[in-house]
Design goal:
InterPro entries: P-loop_NTPase, Sulfotransferase_dom. It is a single chain. The chain is α/β, with parallel strands linked by helices. It has one domain: P-loop containing nucleotide triphosphate hydrolases (Rossmann fold, 3-Layer(aba) Sandwich), CATH 3.40.50. A hairpin with a 2-residue loop joins strand 1 and strand 2. Helix 10 packs across helix 11.
Length: 301
């Protein structure tokens, strides 16, 4: 890739949702994407366990044969639907190259996903992460991703997050938007914290949702293959195949901590109070609840 074309993106609203300016000229085509009824959509707010869920779904679709998931990087096996960056294949181009059932990644809020996923009753897995850990992970991601907007300082990024001035907008609207649709479409709503607490149980839920019968051996294999420590070392999942000019893992690794509760090392007492007051105001009336910490020993790595 020519380094001269790499620059931090600017956020521009698309139907009310701030997206990288790179994406805008492609969004109409994204909306016209024709999903196959066997395709699986993996939807998340950025940095909510996306790559983890992608690898789990790919393993499940291959019946627990993880060797099939070691043939190419995750962004080829599970393309990023709306991705459109300079001098890189777009998500739509990559999707055209792989057969269905396709595990498809998106960060789009519910109102922006292609209607074909809904019309064809495609199975959708949404993974949500508590807002405090999510904002910390998002901050470090924007620091190392040269195609993301400049995050500024931690304090500045926290304010952007709380006002929705980040890629894909307000976390609160995103998680609630998908939560409210789970009874209308085949949506499995997952929580990052549950996955950390008991990955085997949650992977079994994914397999059952996708109609795949996995034995104990296959489940154990997927649990081991998709553990944080294994994925952090796996070049097919840790994005080390992406040039440092794009993802500068010297600044912050793509897979950084992978635990519940890391927010405590970033938030000041005042920031935490401000965050919780804002959170309560934005989430009032919602039946959606998150855990911001787990019992000692429950953060499976």
């Amino acid at each position: 890739m020519d380094p001269s074309v790499i620059r931090k993106s600017q956020l521009i609203p698309f139907r009310g949702v701030p997206l990288p300016h790179y994406f805008l000229e492609n969004m109409e085509k994204v909306g016209e994407f024709e999903a196959d009824k066997t395709d699986v959509l993996i939807a998340t707010y950025p940095k909510a366990g996306t790559t983890w869920m992608q690898e789990i779904v790919d393993c499940v679709l291959h019946g627990g044969d993880v060797r099939q998931c070691e043939q190419s990087p995750i962004h080829y096996r599970s393309p990023f639907l709306e991705a459109f960056f300079p001098e890189m294949p777009s998500g739509l181009e990559l999707l055209a190259e792989i057969p269905s059932p396709k595990p498809i990644k998106t960060h789009l809020p519910f109102q922006l996903i292609p209607t074909s996923f809904l019309q064809k009753q495609c199975k959708i897995i949404y993974c949500a992460r508590n807002a405090k850990d999510n904002v910390v992970s998002f901050f470090h991601f924007d620091r190392m991703n040269m195609l993301q907007p400049d995050p500024g300082t931690w304090e500045e990024f926290l304010q952007k997050f709380l006002t929705g001035n980040v890629t894909y907008g307000l976390w609160h609207d995103h998680v609630k938007g998908w939560w409210e649709q789970r009874g209308n479409f085949p949506i499995l709503y997952m929580f990052y914290e549950d996955m950390k607490e008991d990955p085997r149980r949650e992977i079994k839920r994914v397999a059952e949702f996708l109609g795949k019968e996995l034995g104990s051996k296959e489940l154990d294999t997927i649990v081991a293959h998709t553990s944080f420590n294994a994925m952090k070392l796996n070049p097919m999942t840790n994005y080390s195949t992406i040039p440092l000019d794009v993802l500068d893992q010297r600044t912050s690794p793509f897979m950084r901590k992978g635990i519940v509760g890391n927010w405590k090392t970033h938030f000041t007492v005042a920031q935490n109070q401000m965050f919780e007051e804002d959170y309560c105001r934005r989430m009032v009336g919602s039946t959606l609840h998150f855990r911001t910490e787990l019992k000692p020993g429950d953060n499976c790595l």
